[in-house]
């Protein structure tokens, strides 16, 4: 019975049930119609994941359990989502506590990652891509900071809703860097400008920001990330090409030897 509870197909089924319960319960009409029953389905799933973790540790020993990277991942997901177990026993009035409990329910669904085919290869690719992208990300953060501080000094008084302080400015420049709808903020600032030259300068400032931080910066980050993610396939292809070259070279030698005789 204990081994049955920790089988992969059982765990996967419980995760799917948990996801459906969270999804359906998010509809106010469904919540009212079920009279809170879906909350208890979600709660039972939370208890199951805790029990499943302890059963795995008991079955293989903590050392073997902890030696697996995916078991470590599962352990942290269960621990981070465990605050939801307190929800039936406490009056939750603090907004931050409610947010943590709501988020903890969603975190449990990350357990689905353990059932993704070729997950180890994908995970190693992601880790490798993140390491290779560190320099690009730091550069993007620096560019965001530089253009945001420039916008605070230049436009902070005229547009406090976008550049009233550094934190708001950082967020506004991040939106501009993503390119989608980047022209909306410059157009608003240009409409508030006193002269045609000032309006032209506003648009020029943000065009430069988009070209450097958005088009060049994000494109470079995306290129580095994708290149590292596909490095395994590229290495395999390069190996096959080298083997093919060696075979062709050997074949040519054999043909030359036959012709010489």
Strand-helix topology:
Elements (H helix, E strand, L loop, with lengths): L1 H4 L2 H18 L2 H7 L2 H24 L1 H6 L1 H13 L13 H13 L11 H37 L4 H4 L2 H12 L6 H9 L3 H34 L1 H30 L1
Helix pairs in contact: 2-4, 4-6, 6-7, 8-10, 8-12, 11-12
Describe the 3D structure:
- Helices cover 81% and strands 0% of the residues.
- By secondary structure, it is mainly alpha-helical.
- It folds into two domains: 2-115, Voltage-gated potassium channels. Chain C (Four Helix Bundle (Hemerythrin (Met), subunit A)); 121-229, Helix Hairpins, CATH 1.10.287.
- The radius of gyration is 28 Å and the shape is flat.
Keywords, please?
81% helix; mainly alpha; 2 domains; Helix Hairpins; Four Helix Bundle (Hemerythrin (Met), subunit A)
Short synopsis of the structure:
By secondary structure, the protein is mostly helical. The chain is 81% helix and 0% strand.
How would you describe the shape?
Answer: flat
Distance between the termini: 75 Å
Q: Beta-strand level of the residues, as a percent range?
A: under 5%
CATH class of the largest domain: Mainly Alpha
SSE run: HHHHHHHHHHHHH
Provide the structure class.
Answer: mainly alpha
Number of helices: 13
Stretches where pLDDT is under 50 for at least 5 consecutive residues are none
Write down how many β-strands occur, each being a DSSP E stretch of 2 or more residues: 0
CATH homology group of the largest domain: Voltage-gated potassium channels. Chain C
Major sheet characteristics: none
Q: Give the proportion of residues in helices.
A: over 70%
CATH fold category name of the largest domain: Four Helix Bundle (Hemerythrin (Met), subunit A)
Provide the CATH architecture of the largest domain: Up-down Bundle
Average pLDDT across residues? 79
CA radius of gyration is: 28 Å
Total domain modules: 2
């Amino acid at each position: 019975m204990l081994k049955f509870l920790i089988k992969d197909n059982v765990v996967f089924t419980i995760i799917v049930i948990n996801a459906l319960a969270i999804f359906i319960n998010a509809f106010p009409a469904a919540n009212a119609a079920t009279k809170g029953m879906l909350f208890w389905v979600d709660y039972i799933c939370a208890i199951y994941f805790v029990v499943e973790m302890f059963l795995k540790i008991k079955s293989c020993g903590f050392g073997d359990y902890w030696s697996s990277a995916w078991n470590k991942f599962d352990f942290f997901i269960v621990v981070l989502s465990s605050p939801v177990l307190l929800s039936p026993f406490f009056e939750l009035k603090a907004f931050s506590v409610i947010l943590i409990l709501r988020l903890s329910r969603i975190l449990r669904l990350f357990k689905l990652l353990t059932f993704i085919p070729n997950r180890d290869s994908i995970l190693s690719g992601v880790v490798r891509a993140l390491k290779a992208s560190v320099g690009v990300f730091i550069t993007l953060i620096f560019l965001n900071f530089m253009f945001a501080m420039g916008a605070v000094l230049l436009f902070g008084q005229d547009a406090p809703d976008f550049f009233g302080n550094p934190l708001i400015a950082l967020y506004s420049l991040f939106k501009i860097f993503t390119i989608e709808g980047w022209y909306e903020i410059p157009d608003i600032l240009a409409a508030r400008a006193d002269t045609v030259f000032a309006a032209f300068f506003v648009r020029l400032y943000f065009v430069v920001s988009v070209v450097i931080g958005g088009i060049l910066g994000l494109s470079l980050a995306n290129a580095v990330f994708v290149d590292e993610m596909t490095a395994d396939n590229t290495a395999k292809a390069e190996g096959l090409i080298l083997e093919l070259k060696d075979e062709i070279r050997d074949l040519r030698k054999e043909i030359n030897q036959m012709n010489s005789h």
